[in-house]
């Protein structure tokens, strides 16, 4: 049975408690390090929502919120100092918040849908990711989506694996999926 994937922009009042709960999941804490008080998380989320270089989303399966996404422009982000970015490069962060959705094969189709959305920006030829170098499962999902490992990078909160997904590679890999989805 086909599941529907959708994204909605994050909303402070509607989503702060849910996102705070997700940040306290044992499998999220080591990589996001935001297992802080609700008051502190609310301030964090307010600041992130006000940041014009990124957009925050909830990922939904059949209308049920189950993941969190940060789609960002590399210029203006700390990662811009880790390579020579093109002005239209975008990046992505994600987490699966609901434990019932882990290991069910949803990460790849969700990631594919978000990266496709990012490539709707005509100037974007590359989407990057920098998952924690210890997060082998997420690195594997990024690779399956069409990202390639570039190099380890030192960021303020982690050692990340810089990964690139070029538009041409992505479109070639997934052209059949998107043709049937729009047919």
TrEMBL record:
Keywords: Antibiotic resistance. InterPro entries: Acyl_CoA_acyltransferase, Acyltransferase_MbtK/IucB-like, GNAT_dom. SMART domains: AlcB (SM01006). The keyword ATP-binding does not apply. The keyword RNA-binding does not apply. It comes from the Bacteria. SUPFAM superfamilies: Acyl-CoA N-acyltransferases (Nat) (SSF55729). This is Lysine N-acyltransferase MbtK.
């Amino acid at each position: 049975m086909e599941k529907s994937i959708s994204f909605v922009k994050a909303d402070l009042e509607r989503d702060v408690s849910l996102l705070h709960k997700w940040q306290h999941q044992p499998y999220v804490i080591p990589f996001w390090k935001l297992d802080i008080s609700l008051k502190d998380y609310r301030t964090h989320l307010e600041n992130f929502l006000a940041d014009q270089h990124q957009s925050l989303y909830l990922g939904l399966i059949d209308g049920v919120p189950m993941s969190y996404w940060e789609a960002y422009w590399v210029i203006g982000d700390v990662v811009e100092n880790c390579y020579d970015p093109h002005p239209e490069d975008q990046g992505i962060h994600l987490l699966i918040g609901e434990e019932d959705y882990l290991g069910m094969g949803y990460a790849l189709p969700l990631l594919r849908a978000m990266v496709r959305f990012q490539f709707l920006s005509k100037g974007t030829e590359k989407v990057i990711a920098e998952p924690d170098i210890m997060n082998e499962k997420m690195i594997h999902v990024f690779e399956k989506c069409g990202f390639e490992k570039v190099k380890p990078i030192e960021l303020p909160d982690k050692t990340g694996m810089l990964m690139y997904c070029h538009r041409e590679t992505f479109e070639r890999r997934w052209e059949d999926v998107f043709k049937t989805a729009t047919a």
